[in-house]
Design goal:
499 residues, alpha/beta, Alkaline Phosphatase, subunit A, Arylsulfatase, C-terminal domain, 2 domains, ten-stranded mixed β-sheet, four-stranded antiparallel β-sheet, 13 helices, globular, arylsulfatase activity, hydrolase, Sulfatase-like hydrolase/transferase, calcium, Sulfatase_N
Length: 499
């Protein structure tokens, strides 16, 4: 297997695209967002991996632009989805982690509400995970149509018909606010159902502008798949049989993408439909049927972060860098690999900009940007959409400036680390001691951003937040790391034996 060298790109293709058509379409396009769950960087064929089969997702990449450095705003489900649906750093809304208190407040217009204001018929299919109270469910947050389950992970073969169901794994599947036929009574597999529902939505709304958000549960745990998908993968070269099983789940996901593409093409909508495909975060550390299920670098048996370090939940590249594609035939260059970093919160600004909207009508402005001028060549090839990038989840954090990245992770030695991603995308060589001045400057820049964020709605405060940065307090990187090393090397007191 191999991965793209993100230093290379197909920017030479840009010149063949009309810049005027790219930036100002005569008719704003339909917009489709397809979001996978827990699909790592190494879980798509277009990144160069041959132990996975994704022909339809690869078709999007071949016919559109893939992003060698596509990032999400968080490496776990809920916060990442908030970044997508708000177009901003979700921490500005007090949204830091999964949980019932974490929602997009009604004072902040979300992606669907913006599209609805712009005249789109809006639909969502799949996993919501942005609130479970009635006022925060999809049909009350901008969507004209909804089919799916509002909770997190879900069984792929069964669902409850009980409105008071407490087992979230079999939570009811809803259609427009009412419990729908349980999956097992339909005799279906949830990933297939979502693909079929998405195709139906496109067919039913082909004559009016639509916004469709398809948020799959796949390929999140539980590990369940139809045997028919494994049969199709008997010849797949894998290093472990669990990889083949996982590839079956991915193949079902890919088939659902194919159902969406078929519906778009059969209705003659290809050149007037903008499609984004991405995952909500990177590879999960917990995977597989056999112990040890908690994986370390180089030991994955199902999902793969490729050559990147870290997993879901981390601020290393393996948790944050994901498959990301933009597809719009005739407008977005085909077969291009865009080399500069982009973020999932760029999708909302990109979509609404086609109708002339530059910020939400209500609430805070975007952190994301309109990507089209960058990927179509209207902007200079060396101009990046984002020079500074930030992440914060609980105590884990990261900042990226250009090709330099500073981070702290609880699952590491708990020291502040520095990497040059241009030379070391796998984050193998920590340069914090070699470039102390750069590390300190980046830590100060992170603290300046982090100290101004809204408080977590749960009341939880990161232990390493420098709340007094504005008063002149600084986090001394060298001193911090020295103390961390001393704590690590300090002899632990012997446990007293029980009598």
């Amino acid at each position: 297997m191999h991965m793209h060298d993100f230093k290379t790109s197909a920017l030479s293709l840009i010149g063949s695209v009309s810049l005027i058509a790219a930036s100002q379409a005569a008719t704003p396009p339909n917009v489709i967002i397809v979001l996978a769950d827990d699909q790592g960087y190494g879980d798509v064929g277009f990144h160069g991996f041959d132990d996975i089969r994704t022909p339809n997702i690869d078709k999007l990449a071949k016919g559109g632009t893939s992003f060698a450095q596509g990032y999400v705003t968080a490496s776990v489900c809920g916060p990442s989805r908030c970044g997508i649906m708000s177009g901003m750093h979700q921490q500005r809304l007090g949204y830091y982690g999964n949980g019932p208190l974490s929602v997009i407040p009604h004072s902040q217009q979300n992606f669907a509400e913006m599209m609805k204001e712009l005249g789109y018929h809006t639909g969502m299919i799949g996993k919501w995970h942005l609130g479970e109270t009635e006022d925060q469910l999809p049909w009350n947050r901008g969507f004209d149509f909804y089919y799916g389950s509002p909770t997190g992970s879900h069984d792929y073969f069964k669902s409850s018909a009980n409105a008071d169901e407490t087992r979230k794994a079999i939570f009811p599947v809803y259609r427009n606010g009412k419990i729908d036929t349980p999956i097992q009574e339909r005799g279906d597999y949830l990933t297939e159902v979502y693909g079929d529902e998405a195709a139906d939505f496109i067919n039913e709304n082909k004559d009016r502008p639509f916004f469709l958000y398809v948020a799959h549960n796949a390929v999140h745990f539980p590990w369940q798949v139809h045997d028919k998908y494994l049969e199709r993968l008997k010849d797949l070269p894998v290093h472990h049989e669990e990889r083949r099983f996982f590839a079956g789940m991915v193949l079902a996901l890919d088939d659902s993408v194919g159902a969406i593409l078929d519906a778009v093409e059969k209705n003659g909508l290809s050149e007037n439909t903008l499609i984004f495909y991405l995952s909500d975060n990177g590879t999960p550390r917990g995977q597989g049927f056999k112990q040890p299920k908690q994986k370390e670098r180089g030991t994955t048996t199902m999902s793969s972060p490729g050559d990147f370090n870290g997993f879901k939940g981390d601020t290393y590249e393996g948790g944050l860098r994901v498959p990301l594609v933009a597809y719009w035939p005739g407008t977005i260059p085909a077969g291009q690999v865009y080399p500069h970093p982009v973020v999932s919160f760029d999708m909302a600004p990109t979509a609404v900009a086609r109708s002339g909207m530059t910020k939400p009508s209500k609430g805070l402005p975007f952190d994301g940007v309109d990507l089209l001028p960058y990927i179509t060549g209207e902007k200079p090839a060396n101009e990046r959409p984002h020079q500074n990038m930030f992440w914060r989840r609980d105590n884990d954090y990261a900042i990226r400036q250009g090709d330099w990245k500073l981070c702290w992770n609880s699952r590491s030695d708990q020291t502040i680390e520095l990497y040059n991603l241009a030379e070391d995308p796998g984050e193998r060589v920590d340069l914090v001691n070699k470039y102390p001045e750069r590390a300190q400057q980046m830590q100060d820049a992170f603290d300046a951003w982090d100290s101004q964020l809204a408080e977590n709605v749960t009341g939880k405060v990161p232990a390493n937040r420098n709340v007094k940065y504005a008063e002149g307090k600084r986090t001394n990187v060298s001193q911090f790391n020295t103390q961390a090393a001393e704590r690590k090397n300090r002899p632990q007191p012997k446990k007293r034996k029980g009598k």
